[in-house]
Amino acid sequence: MAAHQWLLFVAAGLLLNLTPGPDVFFIIAHAARRGARAGVVAALGISAGCCVHVAAAAVGVSALVAASATAFGVLKLVGALYLVVIGARMLRAALRGERTAPGASAAAAPDVDLSTVFRRGFLTNVLNPKVALFFLAFVPQFIAPGSAHASAMFLALGLLFTFNSTLVNSGWALATAWAARRAGALQRGMRWLDGVAGTLFIGFGVRLALSDMPAAA
């Protein structure tokens, strides 16, 4: 790839990662409730899920999922169910008021197992078949047709995209945690944030469940 193609790939990837979606809302919700560390761990879990999709696509597994209506449908329903469960948990936390008192720091929130945060972030991403299809649709545009090392190039570009997304997602986590520590209004609105994030996650899950398999190019 020429230098300008690398720059175009990085710029396009950064713009895509700045667009809020299920992953971003998952990170923001954890950073607002538990602080920067939980938000960054959530981002790392999501990045680990991306690595699975990149590796699977590089060896052709994602292409098989894209070509099989049954495989896509099963993975789609599992992913949709998981998003709905995560959303329901957030709504339950909002309704129960499982939140720090107004003006309290995020560190004062009840302890959370960071390995659980990581695992949930990982599953949120890896169980979404549209992430696999995204990599199959986006990355090959930057690989020359007939390249002798197409799989290696796909893997390199996919990991570069994931690295950049980790930086952006960590930025979301740090910015959210910073705002939560300093904005009293945001502290008081964190319960509301859980409700909104939970509703969005349920909506994402329903939309995923109702989505059709992308038509073959």
UniProtKB/TrEMBL annotation:
Q: Where is the signal peptide?
A: none
The UniProt entry's GO CC annotations, sorted and at most eight, read: plasma membrane
Please report the record's description of how this protein sits within the membrane. Answer: Multi-pass membrane protein
Give TM segment ranges: 6-28, 40-65, 71-91, 131-148, 154-180, 192-210
Q: Would the keyword Cell membrane turn up in this protein's UniProt record?
A: yes
Gene Ontology molecular function, alphabetical: amino acid transmembrane transporter activity
Specify the superkingdom. Bacteria
Where does this protein chiefly localize? membrane
Please give the Pfam families that the UniProt record associates with this protein: LysE
Q: Which InterPro entries match?
A: LeuE-type
Subcellular localization: Cell membrane
Q: Which UniProt keywords apply?
A: Cell membrane, Membrane, Transmembrane, Transmembrane helix
Keyword Transmembrane included in the entry's annotation: yes
Q: What is this protein called?
A: LysE family translocator
